[in-house]
Amino acid sequence: VDLGLLASVVRAEVQVYRQPRVAFFSTGDELKGLGEPLDPGDIYDSNRYTLAAMLRQTGARVIDMGVIADDAEAVKRAFETASANADMVITSGGVSVGEADFVTRTLEELGEIGFWKIAMKPGRPLSFGKIGDACFFGLPGIPVSVMATFQIVVSPAIASLQGKQASPRLTLKARLLDNIRKTPGRTDFQRGVVEQDESGELCVRTTGMQASHILRSMSLANCFVVIPRDSGDVAAGEFVTVMPFLGT
């Protein structure tokens, strides 16, 4: 519609924002690419594929740097390359407190940390900072945490780089069909399916087990069920806030 509007007023050239360049990589010796044999303790890296797809949805120019080993020098070189070629750097994994988690330590050395850890579930060990002229998001390594933090935190930042005005995400009220267990202390983003019942009322059900390693819980869902930070358990029949996924 914007292109049609420009044509209607004979504007053949306009000033635009360029595509944000986003470099991303996973960290972890246990991560393998598709088709590689798995040794004991290894897993296939799903995060690169979900991140690449979500980044393309935003219109960003994607720079996939693959998997970086749990090695301080390797992580440092990856950061230097990424920050020299991108407006934003995203990592998945390596932001915890283990002996081989070098992402946060390397960021402290090369750049600056704005914050580390947020009161969000899933996604608590999210970190944010700057390295050179690039902003940085360190996402957790668990698959659902990666997707949740990207939708809630990273996507609005990319929109800002594209010159879009910040606006609140669409939320709806829906009647809960399942009991939800929750401990107060963090805002909970449970995965759900929102739809209309026969009377036209919006209802939402969860997608079952909500552990952050169960990627199927995101595949089946079309929304987050947002349970406030100070809330406890929520009973079926109550009305809750739902946030439709981006692109739905």
Which structural class should the secondary elements be placed in?
alpha/beta
Strand order of the largest sheet: 4-1-5-9-8-6
Shape: globular
Count, helices: 6
Beta percentage is 25-35%
Give the low-pLDDT segments.
Answer: none
How are helices and strands ordered from N to C? HEEEHEHEHEEEEHEEEHEE
Please compute the radius of gyration using only Cα atoms: 20 Å
Mean pLDDT: 92
Largest sheet: 6 strands, mixed
The counted number of beta strands is 14
Tell me the distance between the termini. Answer: 20 Å
Helix fraction, binned, reads 25-40%
Write up this protein.
It is a single chain. The protein has 248 residues and is of the alpha/beta class. It is 26% helix and 29% strand. The chain contains six helices and 14 strands. Strands 4-1-5-9-8-6 form a six-stranded mixed sheet, sandwiched between helices. Strands 10-12-11-13-14 form a five-stranded mixed β-barrel. A hairpin with a 5-residue loop joins β11 and β12 (202-206). It is globular. The relative contact order is 0.13. The mean pLDDT is 92.
Write the layout of secondary structure elements.
Layout: H1 2-8, E1 21-27, E2 31-32, E3 43-44, H2 47-58, E4 61-68, H3 72-85, E5 88-92, H4 103-110, E6 112-116, E7 120-121, E8 127-131, E9 134-139, H5 143-161, E10 172-176, E11 187-196, E12 202-206, H6 216-219, E13 223-227, E14 239-244
Parallel strand pairs: 1-4, 1-5, 2-3, 5-9, 7-11, 10-12
Antiparallel strand pairs: 6-8, 8-9, 10-14, 11-12, 11-13, 13-14
Summarize the structure.
With 248 residues, the chain is of the alpha/beta class. The chain has helices at residues 2-8, 47-58, 72-85, 103-110, 143-161, 216-219; strands spanning 21-27, 31-32, 43-44, 61-68, 88-92, 112-116, 120-121, 127-131, 134-139, 172-176, 187-196, 202-206, 223-227, 239-244.
